[in-house]
TrEMBL record:
Source species taxonomy: Bacteria, Bacillati, Bacillota, Bacilli, Bacillales
A Pfam family that the UniProt record links to this protein: tRNA-synt_2
Principal subcellular localization: cytoplasm
HAMAP family per UniProt: Asn_tRNA_synth
Taxonomic source organism: Gottfriedia solisilvae
GO molecular function: asparagine-tRNA ligase activity; ATP binding; catalytic activity, acting on a protein; nucleic acid binding; transferase activity
NCBIfam families: asnS, PRK03932.1, PRK05159.1
Family matches, as PROSITE patterns: AA_TRNA_LIGASE_II (PS50862)
Name this protein carries in UniProt: Asparagine--tRNA ligase
Length: 430
């Protein structure tokens, strides 16, 4: 019976064959222990000389790291194994011998591992992070599908900048200027006017020359947009969504979290509702904590966000930022037009902002004024303005950065481990 490591629990005391790679091995005279992986998981194969004979035993002992093979054996329960099972090997068939695999079971520098990212992905740690990433993606579709959202795919090549910044990758679109998308939000607003509640999931690009552990040049965003939803409605969707992600990872990635040494007690507490603090109160809090470098009107940096987050055991919303430091499309607070109806969701443990969201301006004249103030008067925004001319409604949305969320929930320090092939300031290889 051919199966995979993740499915061996169905075949206890039965003989199975698994296509696998040898992650590592050790032997003690008459027993060889093979650490096997097949993409679905890891299992230990035990080869006993007395049971398999000299030929198979010597073949097993001679196996080199990352050699591909078919392994046949009997599935046994083993409480000592992280998987709960091991394989009593009866036969080994080599498919392709691996020679001098560069990543050995020893310490390697970060740059070396990044140069060999295509091979580093095979390790237990990277396998666990990628499985958690996959679970977050699965749970994302589950949440939005169950809550009446329609998935819409905005373009990656655009003729304008959604955020109105200069951190864009420019290219030529035949005889026109074009940019790699920073965000699908503006297009998602158009989709929400057609379909009510929508979400996108795709790559975005920021030509930001940053080297921090929170930044990537290319990353993936989940961007919901909702018609007839105000600022408060938006916050409720966000906290329910993030709660769903955390609880799904806890439920379905126990082995991966254990592999990573993640403190699951910190994740068990990630349940809605989340605390909220206004920008005004956040500034007062930081000043009281000795942060004299920040005053009203300044944006928060990583140390500021971390200090605020450390006061809570859940993600925290910072709401009502000054309009002058936020995007042109955010709706002013009717009670105080100097601030906008927005929020950043700050993850605990120093992982920073994972969501930015707001209620959008739905009034044509106000949006036209904001566009003019931000120098966004080209015809590229004509279609976006027209959304406010033909049946405009209150609407809100947000964007969640996938890699920051993966890093936070899995507990890895740097977002470069949260994406299969990271694009960093000085890295385009492999």
């Amino acid at each position: 019976m051919k199966t995979t490591i993740s499915q061996v629990h169905k075949y206890v005391d039965q003989t199975v064959t698994i296509g696998a790679w040898l992650a590592n091995k050790r032997s003690s005279g008459k027993i060889a222990f093979l650490q096997l992986r097949d993409g679905s998981g890891f299992i230990q194969g035990v080869v006993v000389k007395e049971e398999v004979g000299e030929e198979i035993f010597q073949k097993a002992k001679a196996l080199t790291q990352e050699t591909s093979l078919y392994v046949t054996g009997t599935v046994r329960k083993d409480e000592r194994s992280p998987l709960g099972f091991e394989l009593n090997v009866t036969d080994v068939e080599v498919i392709h011998e691996s020679v001098d695999f560069p990543i050995t079971p020893k310490e390697h520098g970060t740059e070396f591992l990044m140069d060999n990212r295509h091979l580093w992905l095979r390790s237990r740690r990277q396998h666990a992070v990628m499985k958690i990433r996959n679970e977050i993606i699965r749970a994302t579709y589950e949440f939005f599908n169950e809550n009446g959202f329609v998935k819409v795919d905005p373009p990656i090549l655009t003729g304008s900048a959604p955020e109105g910044t200069t951190e864009l990758f420019h290219t030529k679109y035949f005889d026109e200027d074009a940019y790699l998308s920073q965000s699908g939000q503006l297009y998602m607003e158009a989709a929400a006017m057609a379909l009510g509640k929508v979400f996108s999931f795709g790559p975005t690009f920021r030509a930001e020359k940053s080297k921090t552990r929170r930044h990537l040049i290319e990353f993936w965003m989940i961007e919901p947009e909702m018609a007839f939803m105000d600022h408060e409605d938006n916050l409720v969707v966000q906290e329910n969504y993030v709660s769903h992600l955390a609880q799904s990872v806890l439920k379905n990635c126990q082995l991966e979290l254990k592999t990573l040494g993640r403190d699951v007690a910190k994740l068990e507490n990630i349940k809605a509702p989340f605390p909220r603090i206004s920008y005004d109160d956040a500034i007062k809090f930081l000043n009281e904590k000795g942060f004299d470098d920040i005053t009203w009107g300044d944006d928060f940096g990583a140390p500021h966000e971390t200090a605020i987050a450390e006061s809570f055991d859940k993600p925290v919303f910072i709401t009502h930022y000054p309009a002058k430091i936020k995007s042109f499309y955010m709706k002013p607070d009717p009670t105080n037009p100097e601030v906008v109806l927005c929020a950043d969701l700050i993850a605990p443990e120093g992982y920073g902002e994972i969501i930015g969201g707001s209620e959008r301006i739905d009034d044509y004249e106000l949006l036209a004024k904001r566009c003019e103030e931000h120098g966004l008067t080209s015809d590229a925004y004509k279609w976006y303005m027209e959304l406010r001319q033909y049946g405009s409604v209150p609407h809100s949305g947000f964007g969640l950065g996938l890699e920051r969320t993966v890093a936070w929930l899995s507990g890895v320090e740097h977002v470069r481990e949260a994406i299969p092939f990271p694009r960093l300031l000085n890295r385009l290889y492999p």
